[in-house]
Amino acid sequence: MAARDPSPTSSARSAATGRAGKQSASRSSMSASPPTSTPPTSHGDEASVASEMNKTDRLLEPPDGPASPPTPADAHATPLPASAVAPASEGRRSARSSRSSVVTYNVQILAGTAIHTPSKYLHKHHQEVLHGPIDRLQSEPESMLPPTLPRQPHPEDTPDSAEDTNDSAEEQLAIEAAQAAQRHNPPRAVDLRKEALRNLSAASEVIVKTLAGGKDFMKTMIRRSASDSHLVNSARQAAPRGPGRPRTARPPVPEHDTSESEEDTALAKLKGKEWLKAGLYVGQHRDFDARLSESQNRLKRKSVSTKENKVIPLPMFAGERLLKGNVFLDYRDFKLPYDTYNPLPRKVKVDGWAKLRRNRFIGSASALWKREKQDNSSCYCFPDDGCGEDCHNRIMAYECDSTNCKLTPEQCRNRPFSELKRRAKGNGYDYGVEVLQTGDRGYGVRAMRTFEPHQVIVEYAGEIITQDECERRMKQIYKKDKCYYLMSFDNKMIIDATRGTIARFVNHSCEPNCEMIKWTVSGEPRMALFAGSRGIMTGEELTYDYNFDPFSSKNIQECRCGTPSCRGVLGPKPKKPIQEERSLAATLLAGTKRKFSEVFGSRPENDGRKIRKKRKPSSIATAVLTRAQNAEARKKAARENALKSAAELHAQRASRQNRAMNRSVSEQLSSRKSKVPRKGTRVMIPKLRSTRLTTVGMKRKQQRSLSNPSRISTLGKHNPRVPKFKKPLPAKATKSRKPLPKSPSPDPEVSEVGENESPNITPNSLRSSKLKQTTLPFKPLKLNVPSSSDSSQEVDAFETAEEEEEEEEDDEYRADDENHDDDNNADSSDEFTLMYPSVKARYAKYKHSKAYQKKSLHKTGAGVKKTTKRTYARRLTR
Ligand SMILES: C[S@@+](CC[C@H](N)C(=O)[O-])C[C@H]1O[C@@H](n2cnc3c(N)ncnc32)[C@H](O)[C@@H]1O
Question: 737: domain range?
Fold first, then answer.
C-alpha cells in the first residue's frame, strides 16, 4: 500500500489515477481492488468504492472508442459534464441533499480535510483542488477539450436518461463547481471580448478612411487617440498603484472632449514629461571630488576643457570611469545624496512658527536704526581669482556686488546672500535644510544636501527689535518659554526669530559644524549660518556655538550636545564652585610646604613614613589669604586677557582697513613710481613697506622716535646710504602753502593697541579667535603734517618717502645707524665722504665756496642737510 500523501493535490491526483485504475480493473476483475487507489479510511468506505465503481466508469467512458490513457486534465474536466447534465429545473437536487444521499463516499475524507478543516474553507478547496481553476474551463473552447470528456448535455436529456448519475458524488461536485463558475463574474470576460471586437472594427474603419483620405485624416486620428479620455482613463486604471497616497493633485480628465484645442492641450500634457532636474546630487558637481577643498575643486573644474554633456548625465559617476578603463585608479569619493539617505522625508510640522523670510523692523527699531553705511569695502580681484579666499570683501565679511567688485556675478564667488536667494527659488533639496525632531533638545535643523567649507547655508532673519522691546517681550511674552530665539545684532538691536527663518531651530553645540556670521550686504548687516571648515555632509545636524549669555542664573540651561568637550551649559563655562577652588589652593599650598620642609630637612621622617603635621591656625590664615590673592590675580589676568583679545580684534580691523587703503594707493603709485619727484613737490606719497621689518622691530623704532621728539623729523637721516635733502623754503612760500590733507584719523579704539600691530589676516584667522602677530605685509599710511610756523619741521614729499624707505632697513643697516647717531649734527659732508669718497674733494671745494656760504644762511637748525636734491642727483649720475 502506498504511503498516504496528506496534500490535497496529491490526493486529487491519486483519485484520478484511482479511477483510471478502476476502469481497467473493472474490465479484468471486479473484485480486485486497484493497487494505486486511495486507501479507504474505513471498511464501509472500501465497500462503497467497490460498489459505486461501475456507475462512475460508465459515466466516464467515452461514447465510442477505447478508453484513452488518463490525463491530469481529467480531474478538471470531470465537473463540466455534470453541470451540464444537471437539468435546470426538475431532477436537480440541492448539493446538500445529494451529498446526504452519498453515505459512503466522503469527499472530505478523501481530501484529507475531514477532521480539522472548517467547512467554510472546503468550497474554495473543491474549486482549486478537485476541479481545477474555473477560469481556464471557461476560456477553453469546446473543441479543445480532451477526448476523454463525457458527451455534452442534450436538451432532450431527461432526468430519467441520466438516472445513473443521480447518486453519483461526482455529479454533486460538478454541480457545486458549476455554481461557483457562475458566481465568478463572467460578464467581464464578455465585456472584454466585445471591446476587442469594437476596436477591431474601428481599426478597420481607420484603415479604410486612411486609404481614402490620406495624411490629414491620419493626423486627426492620432491627435484624437492621444486625447481619448477613455484610453487615458483605462491607462491610468491599468497603471500599478504604489503604496503611497493617491495623486489627487491631477485635474480630472473630462469624459468627452471633442474640440480641437482641448485635444491639443491634452496632447501637450501627455508629451511633456517632467524631468527631475535636481535632487539626487544637488550641491555636487560632476567633477566634484570630496577629498579636495572647494577652491581646489573649482580649479579642477576650470581646468577641464571638455564641454560637459548636461543632457545625458547617466550614469553620473560611472561613465567616465568606464571610459578611462582603470577602475581602481579612478574611483573617487562621493557624498551620499539626501534622498538615498532618507528617501521619504517626513516633514516635521512645527506649531507656532510664523515664517519670515527677511528682517523686519518692529516698533521704534526702524527709527533708531542708523542707516548710513558704516564702512565701505571694495575688492581688487581679477576674474581668475574669482573673489576667493584673498578677496578683500570676503575677508571683511562684505558681499560683493556691482558697486564694490569688478567681476560679473558669474565670475565672483563672494555673493553668498545672492546664492541664498537663488536657492530659495529652487526645490527643497536646493534649499538644503529641514527641521528635525531631536531626542532631547527639541527641534533641530539638518542638511538635505552637502555644503562646502564656509558655504552659506541659511540666513538668520526675524524681527529686529530694540533692547527695551526685547526686555518687554522677555518679561511679558516669553517669560514661560524654554526656548528663546533672540540674537544680538547690529546697532545694539536684537533679532527675534520667534517669527523668522528656519535658522532659529539650529541648536547649540560645544563642537559645532557651522558658524553664525554677520555680513554686510549692500550696506546692510545680515546674519547667516555658514558651514564650518569641515563642510557639511548630507543628513548632518547643523549646530553652532551660541556663546550664550544667560543674563541671569535662572536662565542657565544644561547643554546636551553630547560632544567630548561639552561645557555642560549653554554659554560660557561657569566658574568652579568656591569649595573646589579652596581645596585646590589648599592642596597646592600644602604640597609646596611639604616640599620645602623636605628639602631643608625640617620635616621629621619616621620609618620612611611621613607624619602629617597639624596645621596651625596661623598657617590656615595664610592659606586663606594666599587663596584670596590667587583669586584676585586670576581675575586680573582674565580681565587683561579679555582686554587683549578685544584689542587684537580692533587691531585686526584697523589693519584690514589699512590694507585696503594701501592697495588703492599702490595702484596709483605703480603708475607714478618711475617718476622722480620734483624738488619742492609737497604731495604726500605713501609708500608700500617691504615685508622684511617685523612688527616688533617697527614698534621699537617708533618708541624710540616718540621718546625723542627731535628724532621725529630726522628719522633715519644719519643712514649714510640714504642721504636726505631738505631745502628750506622761504618763509613767504611756507605761509602761502596750504596745509596738507590730514591722514585719516585712526580709530581711537585701534590706537589702544597700536596701528602697526597687525595680525596676519586670513579668512581662517578672522574666524578663529586666536590671532597671530606676524610680519606686516604693508606699511600703514603715515602722513606728517608740517607746521607752517616752523619751517624746520617741514618735510618734503620726497624726503617722507625716503624716510619711510629708510625704516625698512634691516639690522645690518641699523647697526650703521647707531654708529652714526652721534654725527647727527655734524657736517653732512662726512656722510657723503663715507659713501662716495670720489666726491669728497669736490664737495670740500664746494663747501668753501661763496655759494655754499650763501646757502648756509638759510640753514634752519640742527640736523638739516645743506645739500640739495639736484646736487645729490648729479653726484649719483657721476
Ligand atoms: C534657538 S532654540 C533652538 C531650537 C529649539 N531646539 C527648538 O526646539 O525650538 C534654542 C533652544 O534650544 C535648546 N537647545 C539648543 N541647543 C541645545 C543643547 N545643546 N542642549 C540643550 N538644549 C539645547 C535650548 O532650550 C535653547 O533655549
Answer: 676-744+781-877
Binding-site residues, ligand 1, Cβ < 6 A: 441-444, 482-485, 504-505, 507-509, 557, 559-561, 570
Please tell me whether residues 143 and 179 are part of one structural domain. Answer: yes
Alpha carbon of 491 to ligand 1 centroid (Å): 26
Cα–ligand 1 centroid distance for 455 (angstroms): 23
Check whether residue 138 and residue 225 sit in a common domain: no
State phi, psi for 483 to the nearest 5 degrees. Answer: -110, 135
Residue nearest to atom 15 of ligand 1 (CA): 507
Q: 318 in a domain, yes or no?
A: yes
Q: Residue 205: how many CA atoms within 13 Å on its side-chain side?
A: 7
Of 510, 537, 555, the one marking the end of a domain is 555
Which of 7-39 are b and which e, b meaning 16 or more Cβ less than 10 Å from the residue's Cβ? ebeebbbbbbbbbbbbbebbeeeeeebbeebbe
How many A from CA of 507 to the centre of ligand 1? 5
- pTM, rounded to two decimals: 0.38
Please state the domain count of the chain. Answer: 5
Give residue 503's pLDDT band: very low, low, confident or very high (50, 70, 90): very high
**328, 441: one domain:** no
Domain boundary among 264, 280, 308: 264
Q: Which atom of ligand 1 is nearest to the CA of 482?
A: 25
> How far does the centroid of ligand 1 lie from the alpha carbon of residue 485, in Å?
9
What would the pLDDT profile of 272-314 be if each residue is shown by its tens digit? 666 666 665 666 666 777 777 777 777 877 777 666 655 555 5
User: Among 434, 437, 438, 441, which residue has the most ligand 1 atoms within 8 Å of its CB, making it the best to mutate?
Assistant: 441
Closest-lying ligand 1 atom to the alpha carbon of residue 484: 27
For residues 472 and 14, the model is more confident at 472
Cα gap 141→96, rounded to integer Å: 31
ipTM tops 0.85? yes
CB 804 within 8 A of CB 685: no
Residues 393 and 434 in one domain: yes
Which grid coordinates are listed for 719? 643712514
**Distance from the alpha carbon of residue 446 to the mean position of ligand 1, in angstroms:** 14
Kindly state the percentage of the chain with pLDDT values over 90: 14
